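Risk register update: the risk of archive-format incompatibility is retired. Evidence:
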Amino acid sequence: MKNMIKRILRFFYYLPSNFSNRIRYKLKGVRVGKHHETKGRLCIKNKGFITIGDRVRINSKGSANPIGGGERTYFQVLKGAELCIGNDVGMSNCAITAGNRVTIGNSVRIGAGVKIYDTDFHSLNPFERTAKPEIPNVVTKPIVIEDYAFIGAGSYILKGVTIGKYSIVGAGSVVTKDVPQGEIWAGNPAKKIGIVPLEK
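Archived output:
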């Protein structure tokens, strides 16, 4: 009985943000699956394509997950790019920018304050970067986060990286290389530190 009351109170507490985010999705051209739940106000800049699967839960306010601080969740998809989020994904107060394609598999967990960028944003050539106007010679490479992966809080996932199925990225890591399936990586730059225990 107590749990049922808690569920009902939670539903009504987050009803305004869920409703306003549904409107925001419509206005921004985001395709969303069933049983989606968002705590807080999402920030969306979409000039490409965003799809979100079923039963996805997103925290986008400090009180929804205090370890994320005061950050919100930001989705920025540049012209012609794509962000694809699978089913049963959970994420907190994170920022994702897709200049090419970011694919997040099913049952992935993305911790508070994680940044996922598939682009350098600016040219690596200092003369192109400081030109007036800036010369947009920007490198972008797709990111793939496979099913059941877990990205620890405060980590950065950078362009061209694939995080393998079941793999774990430790909190505060900077991932610049592919993480093979079932491995634990951590550090800056991230390196293998262990194997994921897959026994049931």
